[in-house]
Amino acid sequence: MTQRFSRRSFLHATAATSGIALLAGCSGSSGGDGGSDGDSEATDSPAPDREMPAFDGWFERTGNYDGVHDMTGEDEVTISVGAEGNGGGFAFGPAAVKVSTGTTVVWEWTGNGGTHNVLHREGEFESELTASEGFTFEHTFDATGEYRYVCVPHETLGMVGIVLVE
Ligand SMILES: [Cu+2]
After folding, report:
1. Which residue among 1, 11, 85, 106 has the highest number of C-beta atoms inside a 10 angstrom radius?
2. Per-residue pLDDT of the chain in tens (166 residues, 90 and over written 9)
């Protein structure tokens, strides 16, 4: 028994005595706000300095779009397919990344949200349609540009993404 102080006897003592006695016995306790302060947890807000362009409304249905994640200087960058967002596992995470030329982007399936794919309609890259957890598809970006891509089954839910290559 290493407890230095019995909370039970403390409560009994304060209940039975006056406020003056409570003050005297309240050396280390920080209680006393009556539990009125309930929900003050920190939220997952976007990094304040992250650029958040509108891309002509490309992300207007994409609830998990939280700005362009700067991943320049990396040889390889991973994007989750079936990340949490858009009402389920219907998101790319992050939705928008910025990488350097020569970077290989690896899309990795979480197994959530059903069947997904990664399609660049202009023909630079296209994965197969699959729901398999751990499936990966990769593309190396050798030219600068803005590459918009979608998951065909969930595009209307907002499951779209962008790779900016600089
Ligand atoms: Cu999808």
Report:
1. 85
2. 444 444 444 444 444 444 444 444 444 444 444 444 444 444 555 566 799 999 999 999 999 999 999 999 999 999 999 999 999 999 999 999 999 999 999 999 999 999 999 999 999 999 999 999 999 999 999 999 999 999 999 999 999 999 999 9
Q: Ligand 1 centre and the CA of 87: distance in Å?
A: 12
Measure Cα distances from 157 to 115, 139, 160 in Å: 14, 24, 9
> Could you tell me the distance, in angstroms and rounded to a whole number, from the CA of residue 146 to the centre of ligand 1?
21
Q: Is 69 annotated as a binding residue?
A: no
CA dihedral 93, 94, 97, 103 (to 10 degrees): -40
Name all domains of the chain by residue range, CATH numbers in brackets: 55-165 (2.60.40.420)
User: Cα 132 vs. chain centroid, distance in angstroms?
Assistant: 21
Per the annotation, does 116 bind a ligand?
yes
Q: What is the four-CA torsion angle of 18, 24, 29, 31, rounded to 10 degrees?
A: 30
